[in-house]
Amino acid sequence: MNILVVDDEIMIAKGLCHIIRKMDPGLEIVEFASSAEEALVKLENTPFDLCLVDICMPETSGLQLIEQCMEKKLCSNFCIISGYAEFEYARQGIRLGVQDYLLKPVDKEMLWNMLQSFNLSNSLIVSRNTVQNPYVKKMLNIISNEYIHDISLYEVAGKLNINTDYAGKLFKTDTNISFSEYLNRYKLDKVISQMKVEPTSNIEQLAINNGFLEIRNFYRVFKKFYNMTPREYREKHL
User: Fold this and answer.
1) Four-point Cα dihedral 66, 71, 76, 81, nearest 10
2) How far apart are CA 188 and CA 95, in angstroms?
3) Separation between Cα atoms, residue 3 and residue 21, nearest integer Å
4) Which candidate, 92, 10, 105, 5, places its Cα nearest to that of 51?
5) Does pTM top 0.85 for this prediction?
6) Average pLDDT over residues 104-123
7) CA gap 223, 46 in Å, rounded
8) What integer is the mean pLDDT of 91-109?
């Protein structure tokens, strides 16, 4: 995932970029722009998946920048950064289609939760594209083909004729994430993708269709990664 932070206060923009890089080292590009004009230039030259935009900037406001980006189809995911005094502007942004907002000073936990809501599938893709071990590549392929059956590391290791503990260590070393966490995130990504296409669909049925055969476990895993329930996520983001 490529992220652009837009804030005319350069130290704040640089600080957010630094925090975001530390939170997810797998991100490909994390850059900042100190004005809407600079942001447009960067967006026209580099594909960014998410823009964090300060509402109050001189000359061109954050909302105006977002409108221009949407008109030119330069980016489709936005998070507003605002102070308490600009909260009404944040509400306007949400009406424009902005998916989330953060209040200044930005709380790290809120920033992390926001990134998680956007960053699932892209982090997984980075992991798949950077693996070196042939066993791990095969494990990733098995997950993508058989995740709906709620497979386990034991079963996957058996298919490859290797020891379960050894398979787990190989996977963690090459992807920086455990097998079970990757599998859960992969399935959650599938659930959320379908929620976006069918926002009124039955959430529990989507969970079952994507490998969460125990509904309690689905709710537990979802809350762990997003710090909210699936219904709260749908109301907030969809």
Assistant:
1) 0
2) 26
3) 10
4) 5
5) no
6) 72
7) 33
8) 78
**Rounded to whole angstroms, how far apart are CA atoms 191 and 208?**
9
Instruction: Write out pLDDT tens, residues 122-150.
Output: 455 555 556 789 999 999 989 988 999 88
Please name each of the domains of the chain with its CATH number: 2-120 (3.40.50.2300), 131-237 (1.10.10.60)
* Amino acid (one-letter) located at 80: I
- Measured CA to CA in angstroms, residue 210 lies from 144, 189, 201, 202, 205 at distances of 11, 9, 14, 13, 9
Plot region of 5 (φ>0 → left; ψ -120 to 50 → alpha; else → beta):
beta
| Sequence letter at residue 57 | M
What's the one-letter identity of residue 93? G
Taken in order 148, 150, 152, 155, the sign of the CA dihedral is: negative
